[in-house]
Amino acid sequence: SKVLVTGINGYIAAWVGKTLLEKGYSVRGTVRSEDKAVVIKQIFAEAGYGEEKFETVVVEDITKDGVFDEAVKGVDAIEHTASPFHLKADDPQELINPAVNGTLSILKSALRVSGSIRRIVVTSSTAAVVNPSQLPEPKLFSEVDWNNQAIEEVKKHGREANQVTKYRASKTLAEKAAWEFYNSNKANISWDLVTLNPPFVFGPAIHLPSTASPSALGTSLLDWYNTVATSDMGGKSLDALANVGAGWVDVRDIALAHVLALTKDEAGGERLLISKGEFTWQDFIDAANSLPPSALPLDKLPKGNPGAGKSCQHKILYDARKAERILGLGAEVKYHTMEETSKDSLEDFARRGWF
Ligand code: NDP
C-alpha cells in the first residue's frame, strides 16, 4: 500500500518515509519545490528506494484549498508532518497560518477524495499539550491536557509574544482544527484520525545531503548539536545545562510511532503522547562522554558539570502509557536510550565532518 507523507524533506518526515519503505510500503512525499524533490529523491535512491517505491509531488503552498487533491489520490493513508518549526517569526501568523490551514487543506482534500484512504496521522507536539507556566510542583501531563494558554498569550501579545509561545500556539491551533474537522465530518469519511504528540526529537539526520552544514539542521537537532557537540555548549550556562529539563524521544522512535499508528486499529480517533522521558542537557553531555571512544573523537566533547543533571527536579512529566498500550512503544518495542541516540547522532556528525 501507498502512504502520502507531507514535507518529506523534513527531519522527522524523512525517517517516517524510510521506516515506511523498510516495512514494505510505497511512499509519495510532498515538498515545496522541484529542487527539494531532487535532493530527497537522491537520498532515498542511495538508500535503495528508486522511483517505483518513492515518488514526490510538489505542493508549493500548503495553505491553499485544493492543492492536495491530486496528491491524496490512490493512497491508503496520510502522514501529515509539514508545519513550520522555527523560533524566528515576527507575526505569529507566519507559523499559525501554515500549521492550521496546511492541516485543514489536506483534510479537506482527503474528504473530497476519501476512497482508499483509511487513516490520517497528524504530527502534533507536546507543544499542544503542556501548559508551561511556572509549575509549583511536578505535573504529569497526558492526552487530556491542552495548551490553551499559548493561544491566549498570542491573542494578547501578538507579535510581542515569546517565540516558543508562538510556535506552541501554532501547534495547539492546528491540532484543535484537525480534531474539529474530523469530528464534524465523521459521517462522510472513510478514514479516521490519529495525532501524535512528541516532545523534543533528537537523533541522526537522514534528510540532509552529505554536503550540508550544521546550520541546515532543524530547530531541535541544531540545539542538540550546538549543546552536546560544540565546545561552547550552545552558549548555555552550567546552571541551565543542569536544571532546564524537558521531555525527549529519538527520531527513529517517533517515526516508528507514525507507522504503528497506521497499523494498530485501536489508534483510530486517539491522541497519543510519545515520550522516552525527561532529560537535562547535562544528561546528554554525560551520555555522550560515557561512550566507548573507539570510532569517535570524544576528547572534543564538552564536559559541562558531570552528574549535575541528575538532581534536576523535573516539573513537566509526560504520561506515555497510552502509546505503550496501543502502539507497544516502551513495551514490545524499546525506546532508544540517551546513549544510543548520542552515539548514532555523533557518528552521523563525524561522518559529515562536523565533529
Ligand atoms: P523540519 O523543519 O525538519 O521539517 C519541517 C517540514 O515542514 C519540512 O518539510 C518543511 O518544508 C515543511 N514546512 C515548514 N514550513 C512550511 C510551510 N510554511 N509550508 C509548507 N511546508 C512547510 O522539522 P521537524 O522534522 O523537526 O518537524 C516536523 C513536524 O514535527 C512539525 O509538525 C513539528 O511541529 C513537529 N514536531 C517536531 C519536534 C522536534 O523536536 N523536531 C517535536 C514535536 C513536534 P521546507 O523544507 O520546504 O521548509
State the main characteristics.
355 residues; alpha/beta; three-stranded mixed sheet; 12 strands; 39% helix; globular; binds NADPH dihydro-nicotinamide-adenine-dinucleotide phosphate; oxidoreductase; D-lactaldehyde dehydrogenase
Descriptive notes:
- It is a single chain.
- The protein has 355 residues and is an alpha/beta fold.
- The chain has a domain at 204-249 and 275-355.
- The chain is built from 11 helices and 12 strands.
- Helix 2 links the parallel strand 2 and strand 3 (54-58).
- Helix 4 packs across helix 5 (163-185).
- 46% of the residues are buried.
- The mean pLDDT is 96.
- Bound molecules: NADPH dihydro-nicotinamide-adenine-dinucleotide phosphate (NDP).
- The site of NADPH dihydro-nicotinamide-adenine-dinucleotide phosphate has 24 residues, from helix 1, helix 3 and strand 8.
